[in-house]
């Protein structure tokens, strides 16, 4: 899977220029995090990947095919989008029906839907709640319901918009397992997040946006070492990373164990 943005520009009807010529290539199956302050253009970018938004100028290509060649519904079979607010995505009277809806629309056989549902429900932690109305779920469970509904469609690319909102530690661990499982199945996951600890724990590549432009693109170690640039983007590294930087450690660390090891190494120098 290869996603390529070439000088992507987008202007909202209000006249606000949300994207200012973004160039970006994402390919393979390594999960990618998209970070930056509110209004940086993150959601605007990902809404171009399945045609929800169309460029004012520039190009979006999926495996070499321009986004304009298909409708959003057609791209949805290949690019799955999980919205930030699950209430914007849930509309049926049970979790089971939410999971069944997409596969039924594309004519998937009943046996295959059943098998896929059992696997998906287990992965997202809703095996015991398939008969519940989605609006009777907790906010975290609603999020996993929308994730499950998209997984049921088995797209090549998953876009998660702020999946950690409303999640506790166990929810974040489940998200970690979902990301790892999807990668193992050859899927590409692109995730928008303001939770920098979650980002550092789960993503080898991080793209930082500011005012409609990409200003950093690299590994977690490379990106979170750029303190001055991150400050201009109103992005703070994970707490333990900031402690290490405040202590003057040269190594960029993300865990307590790495912090203690880096501290010991500094003392030995």
Automatic annotation (TrEMBL):
Taxonomic superkingdom: Bacteria
Record-linked Pfam families: ABC_tran (PF00005)
Keywords: ATP-binding, Cell membrane, Membrane, Nucleotide-binding, Translocase, Transport
Classification via SMART domains: AAA
Keyword DNA-binding: no
One GO cellular component term noted in the UniProt record for this chain: ATP-binding cassette (ABC) transporter complex
Gene3D superfamilies (alphabetical): P-loop containing nucleotide triphosphate hydrolases (3.40.50.300)
Localization: Cell membrane
Membrane topology, record value: Peripheral membrane protein
InterPro entries reported for this sequence: AAA+_ATPase, ABC_transporter-like_ATP-bd, ABC_transpr_CbiO/EcfA_su, ECF_ABC_transporter_ATP-bd, P-loop_NTPase
GO MF terms, alphabetically ordered: ATP binding; ATP hydrolysis activity; ATPase-coupled transmembrane transporter activity
SUPFAM superfamilies in the cross-refs: P-loop containing nucleoside triphosphate hydrolases
Residue ranges of domain ABC transporter in the record: 3-236
Membership in a protein family: Belongs to the ABC transporter superfamily.
Name the record gives this protein: ATPase component of energizing module of queuosine-regulated ECF transporter
Biological source species: Anaerostipes rhamnosivorans
